[in-house]
Design brief:
The structure holds two protein chains of two kinds. By secondary structure, chain A is α+β, with helices and mostly antiparallel strands. Helices cover 27% and strands 25% of the residues of chain A. The two termini of chain A are 51 Å apart. Chain B is α+β, with helices and mostly antiparallel strands. The chains are: A alpha+beta, B alpha+beta.
Chain lengths: 735, 324
């Protein structure tokens, strides 16, 4: 449906399609492996032990910047029980936690003892561990070349002209701290060689890219490497791609001829397998008095340590209809561990800034913050040359959420409440991708006894992949989810993309559906032949294939399968994305908070989270995904921060006591809602991804609710009591 | 972690014999919730770890004529659930329930809680050789110090992390220590010592001594107590600031008032000036605020922990107002 720009009727830009009346898909299906997981029988990489297995430990740099003057492995090599020792670094180390040497020994204690026997002489060098230090004049260079480099720029319209048309202009700076992924299961790998073939069991979100990365690192053809991942205790982006320690395990295994296991400590996990880059985002924006945005300018300084910062401008470029936009982003190198994608990289930080800005602009204009957002609603993807969205249900998210949180009851003027406990409501919008990867493959195998396998080289990172695969397959074949044997997590299976970028369900779901539809067709043909009726008259339902005109004329599913005379394999593929449309997911979070103005403590009371992700595959795991995203985002908003001592260059909180993650008691009431809308063209199921969306708007929604409660915008997360009290004091001093 | 020997003595005498004879470094372990993290970080490297759980009869809460006796190996969870504690010392129950997490309270003990080591992130880092570890500097000065001391710091800015200690001191508890010279008792307040006395330690327990019990005087009629702990997370968090208060309430005024702070000084910090000002006075938030502000005038915050002064005022005020 096409509308002239600016003419879109609110909430009707893509009329929801009536959902097909599916029996299982879209309804709440309990995890088919839930019992296995909660009873401790599911095998995680940490749980695996092989005969003659050796344990690897890695010596890491204790300094942020130093020259390795000498490295003596001889004493470690001489220790009984040590089977191999590797030098991993020469010259300069650039961050605390960088690999220096590794050992493989008969048990963990011996390996640790061996690490203590490795003698390293370091000459410490000046370091820069904060953005400020790295940008200062005369700062030590982290890499060869300047510390600050251009990361991204974008322009549309004419920014100067935009500001000249503005009736109200404000400029604000927002900061987000470095977050650590903190998966429950730390990174772990086991490597085993069999002649020239390598098998790796890895706690990974990406078996195929781990395979390919190892192939490059080891100089071994990818065809000789098999990567297996059965169950995993969280990754959040820190387990995307091959790890240095996995290659180390493979080298040690090759040298010793024995399986080698490496397991990272919580401290290693904090230092050297990734983090979410910090950002310092300045937004200058201009609007007409009625709220129409005319100019948005974003400048971002972001640090991903020795890696890259996060491009964080996409939400500002896309969410609102603003004709004049200019973006400049800079990555600042520091002597800290490299960043890695962290659940919605860039969008989390960019949304915190953009949505905080919208809240402050609304206050400046005297407008309802939700009305300001509706006023600037965009039905086209402005960042992608203005192509239309294939589907967009953000307006419905606003309507549903506002009604459920009781938006009308918010403080009309931020901070207008009285007393030491102040309540407030806040909202934030979300955009993300989640379109899935064309070319994803999956097989459905029907055995002669009627048993069915759903097979795909994807991996479950906790979202319930096995369950939606079983649900789709069962739905299509007239079976129940528990009838399907799901096989995933092995590069021996058909290719699927990494489980990152919210792409697992919209990649694997349609591929399985495609394979199952082919299986259904063949089974119907076989049954039709046996029953002597046309295939079009066959109904596949209730574990039977029967004549729609004469239901007693039937074959059991097993008998029909037997008619195929062999194991029948049906190949499914996720089809291409039709061009000319933008495929995005949308959502809006509404938060209610209570702020204690004497202690600076923030309690989040309630969150209404509304998402538009096309068709929901499994309502139960979809709701879990939303609860998980909110948990993580609330935690980042209120508690989480990597703290580094500028003098020593060392992280002071590389553990779960001092790096604070939200607990069950910090959780609010959470109401997850979905706009049930089937995308008409994204794939044959009409579903989009959900892994990242619920992580994106929550921190901003909480900060905006705090603003509504106390009338001062924190502009920096985490909003710990010291920061809240400082901001309240500054406000008092100002007024 | 370095390998160590494991000892399972069956009596206090056997523990004392071990402590007296051995030339080796000995660590006494009760619940282990603190010691094991120190061992894993390599901050302490004992040759022998002595498991005190193997001694029977050190877990009890008993009401006797001279007060309520609490065995050193009583778990924090058992303390919080005890009927006598609940009836007579509500502040102690609040303190016990405020600390750590249910799992940790199930294994952590009263004796262990009173003898735990500081949580300063420099002390806990093997490579930061600070004064407490025999070095010559305090890394918190000019470093990351939002959780550090605002009172009594001087050469070392740790805060004493116990929640039970301030409350027990407010309740005028006495600690019982066994040594080869017999048993000695002292006010719990005297058990703790500032860094200026011995920067390597937080208390005066000798190398051949062991804590075996705590005694609290019987609660007088009209005596009330309360513990308010302010932290970042709702649970499983040490205090940013806490206030333990006890007093005899009549109407809106309180006599025999004791105010002891946690989380703001290297030892549980008695706010004597405020106690004196507020003794017997009609309490309201303005009066309390004035008294605690005056008493906290001696605070010397570092770069990042000035907010703790305001938090301390709030904790004191809320604890006192809850008494009346």
């Amino acid at each position: 449906m096409e509308f002239a720009r600016g003419q879109e009727p609110r909430g009707k830009e893509q009329p929801p399609q009536p959902a097909q009346d599916f029996r299982i898909i879209g309804r709440p299906t309990p995890r088919i492996d839930g019992r296995l997981i909660v009873t401790g029988r599911a095998k995680y990489t940490h749980d695996l032990f092989f005969k003659d297995m050796l344990y690897a430990k890695i010596l890491r740099s204790p300094y942020a910047s130093a020259e390795i003057v000498s490295l003596d492995l001889s004493q470690a090599q001489a220790l009984p029980g040590v089977k191999a020792v590797l030098k991993l670094k020469e010259g300069r180390v650039k961050y605390e936690g960088e690999q220096v040497a590794a050992v493989a020994a008969i048990d963990e204690e011996t390996a640790e003892e061996a690490l203590r026997l490795i003698k390293v002489e370091y000459k410490t060098l000046p370091h820069a561990v904060t953005i400020e230090a790295a940008m200062a004049a005369g700062a030590p260079q982290v890499h060869d070349g300047p510390n600050t480099t251009k990361l991204n720029e974008y322009t549309r319209g004419n920014i100067d002209q935009g500001f000249s048309e503005a009736e109200v202009t404000i400029e604000r700076t927002y900061k987000t701290a470095v977050e650590i992924h903190q998966p429950t299961e730390t990174h772990a790998s086991i490597a085993q060689w069999d002649d020239d073939r390598l098998t790796v069991w890895d706690s990974t979100q990406a078996i195929f890219s781990t395979r390919d990365g190892l192939a490059r690192a080891l100089g071994v053809p990818a065809s000789k490497i098999r990567v297996i991942k059965m169950y995993m205790g969280g990754g959040f982006g820190s387990k995307l791609g091959a790890n240095e320690h996995t290659a180390v395990a493979a080298r040690l295994a090759r040298e010793t001829g024995r399986p080698v296991k490496v397991t990272l400590s919580r401290k290693d996990n904090s230092l050297c397998v990734g983090n979410r880059p910090s950002t310092r985002i300045t937004i200058k924006g201009g609007a007409k008095k009625d709220g129409t945005l005319v100019a948005l300018r974003l400048t971002n300084y972001t640090s991903g340590g020795v890696g890259r910062g996060d491009e964080s401008s996409e939400p500002l470029i896309d969410v609102y209809k603003c004709p004049n936009v200019k973006v400049e982003e800079f990555s600042v190198s520091t002597n800290t561990g490299a960043s890695r994608p962290t659940r919605a990289p860039g969008h989390v930080q960019g949304t915190f800034a953009l949505e905080g800005f919208m809240e402050e602009l609304a206050a400046e204009l005297g407008l309802d913050p939700l009305e300001l957002r509706r006023k600037n609603y965009s039905s086209r993807n402005e960042g992608e040359a203005g192509i239309p969205y294939s589907s967009k249900g953000l307006a419905q998210c606003y309507d549903l959420g506002a009604s459920r949180i009781g938006w009308a009851g918010r403080n009309k003027k931020p901070g207008e409440g009285q007393g030491t406990k102040r309540r407030g409501l806040g909202v934030a919008s979300q955009i993300w991708w989640g379109m899935g990867a064309p070319g994803t493959l999956a097989d459905v195998k029907v055995q002669r006894d009627g048993s069915v396998e759903a097979v795909c080289g994807t991996q479950d990172i906790g979202g319930g992949t096995r369950t939606f695969m079983a649900a789709i397959c069962a739905e299509t074949l007239g079976l129940e989810p528990q009838d399907i044997t799901v096989k995933i997590g092995d590069t021996a299976y058909p290719w699927a993309p990494s489980s990152g970028g919210s792409q697992t369900a919209p990649s694997v779901g349609p591929a399985i559906r495609d394979a199952a539809l082919k299986a259904a067709e063949r089974l119907k043909a076989a049954a039709a032949k046996k029953l002597g009726i046309p295939p079009a008259d066959i109904v596949l339902s209730g574990k039977k294939l029967f004549d729609k005109n004469k239901p007693e004329n039937a074959l059991s599913f097993g008998d029909a399968a037997n008619e195929l005379r062999r194991e029948a394999v049906f190949h499914g593929e996720r089809g291409p994305l039709p061009e000319g449309f933008a495929y995005n997911t949308f959502g809006a979070h509404f938060a209610e908070v209570e702020v204690d103005t004497e202690t600076g403590q923030i309690k989040v009371l309630k969150v209404v989270a509304v998402h538009e992700i096309g068709r929901v595959l499994n309502r139960l795991t979809a709701e879990s995904q939303v609860v998980g995203g909110i948990t993580q985002g609330l935690s980042a908003a209120l508690f989480e921060e990597r703290v580094i001592d500028e003098n020593t260059g060392k992280m002071v909180n590389p553990n779960l006591q001092a790096y604070k993650v939200a607990t069950a008691q910090d959780m609010p009431e959470i109401v997850p809602l979905f706009v049930d809308l089937v995308d008409p063209r994204i794939n044959i199921l009409g579903n989009k991804g959900l892994g990242e969306p619920p992580r994106i708007p929550i921190s901003a929604a909480i900060a905006n609710a705090v603003y509504n409660a106390v009338g001062v915008h924190l502009r920096e997360i985490p909003m710990t009591p010291d920061r809240v009290l400082r901001a309240l004091r500054a406000k008092e001093a100002g007024s | 972690m370095k390998n160590f020997q494991w000892a399972e003595p069956k009596s206090i005498e056997q523990v004392l014999a071990l402590l007296a004879k051995s030339e080796k470094r000995i660590a006494l372990m009760a619940g282990g919730t603190d010691l094991l993290t120190e061992i894993k970080e390599g901050v302490v490297e004992p040759d022998i770890v002595v498991d005190l759980q193997s001694i029977k009869g050190l877990s009890y809460v008993r009401k006797e004529k001279d007060g309520v006796h609490i065995g050193a190996l009583t778990t924090v969870a058992a303390l919080a659930e005890d009927g006598i504690v609940r009836a007579d010392y509500p502040g102690l129950r609040e303190a016990a329930e405020s600390l750590a997490s249910p799992q940790l309270r199930n294994v952590g003990t009263v004796g262990g809680n009173l003898c735990q080591r500081p949580r300063c992130w420099y002390y806990r880092d093997l490579q930061s050789v600070c004064r407490k570890k025999g070095g010559s500097e305090c890394f918190a000065e000019g470093g990351k110090n939002k959780y550090h001391a605002i009172l009594g710091g001087g050469i070392c800015h740790i805060v004493y992390p116990s929640d039970l200690a301030p409350m027990l001191i407010a309740l005028e508890a006495e600690i019982a220590v066994s040594s080869p010279r017999g048993e000695k008792k002292m006010p719990l307040a005297d058990f703790y010592a500032l860094p200026s006395k011995n920067v390597r330690r937080e208390n005066v327990l000798g190398p051949d001594e062991m804590v075996h019990a705590v005694r609290i005087p019987l609660a007088k009629k009209g005596e009330k107590s309360a513990y308010v702990k302010l932290k970042e997370r709702a649970t499983w968090d040490f205090a940013l600031a806490s206030a333990a208060v006890k007093g005899n309430v009549s109407g809106k005024s309180v006599n025999g008032l004791r105010i002891v702070l946690g989380g703001v000084a290297p030892i549980p910090w008695r706010l004597e000036k405020a106690e004196q000002v507020l003794q017997g006075k009609k309490l309201n938030s303005a009066v309390i605020k004035e008294a605690s502000r005056a008493a906290l005038g001696e605070a010397e915050p570092l770069d990042e922990n000035g907010y703790k002064i305001q938090l301390t005022e709030a904790a004191v005020s809320r604890a006192l107002l809850s008494l009346i």
